[in-house]
Amino acid sequence: MRVVVVGAGIIGVCTAYALRRAGFDVTVLERRSGVAQEGSFANAGVMAPGYVGPWASPGMPKKVLSYLLRPEAPVIFRPSLDPALWRWLRRWLRECDLERYRRNRARMQRLAFYSQAELRVLRTAHALDYEQATGYLQLFRTEPELEASAAARALLAELGEPILSSTLLLSGEDVPLTEPWEIRERLEHLVDLVIDGGACGLTATTVVDLTTDTPVVLRYGKGDTSDFES
Questions:
Q1: Low-confidence ranges of the chain (pLDDT < 70)
Q2: What does pTM read for this prediction?
Q3: Domain containing residue 213
Q4: Does the chain have fewer CB atoms within 10 Å around its N or its C terminus?
Q5: Which residues pair with 25 in a beta bridge?
């Protein structure tokens, strides 16, 4: 089978590579003289599958309405009499339901973690090297944003190191809580403090009991347990 890929940006090139590896006859069309000359040129991004999630979420309708009143709003809405627009809005609002959101997010996260695994395979197979760093530099644009982070910053200053947490998987549930607003909604009355550190991934953390002389692995997850089992 012959396939034509339009655009030689990072998505187009990776798509063509995967198709060719699968045995397809692939042609890439690009108006520039080389690859990654437009949207992918000198681009930067974050490889963080844990942040992947649908825009249709329980708190989003209210947030979108607040955006519309800002001059720099990331969302532009132009009402019209087009029935297709209102059908789309009705469907979007329906997908903001908590259970629908959690189901859609789980699907997107599976795809995101698969994509991350494929990136690692591609990087290793072709010895690709590119500028990358670990960690985040978080900038606050307004005083309210800075004030909202006061508790987290105080803890960081006190501890002198990053804050560690474990995956929150409630008893009887298959999918962990990953959204800060959902954790706060369900557990705020049971704990003293909820710190919004952004969305988490679906892959559980490793939990090790260090309260005795011999470490005991209570849950196997993303962390390497070899140092505790040798």
A1: 44, 50-51, 134-136, 162-166, 180-181, 191-202, 230
A2: 0.58
A3: 153-230
A4: C
A5: 2
Burial class (CB in 10 A: 0-12, 13-18, 19+), 22: exposed
DSSP assignment string, 190-216: TSS---------SSPPPEEE-SSSS-E
Helix 98-125 to helix 83-95 angle (10° resolution) is 90
Place of tokens 């890929």: 5
Measured from the Cβ of residue 163, the count of other Cβ atoms closer than 10 Å reads: 10
In a domain, 23, yes or no: yes
Length of the chain as a residue count: 230
CA distance 95 to 97: 5
Q: Which two tokens stand for residue 199?
A: 């969305």
Give the number of other Cβ atoms within 10 Å of residue 174's Cβ: 7
Q: Which of 226, 225, 9, 14 is nearest to 116 (CA)?
A: 14
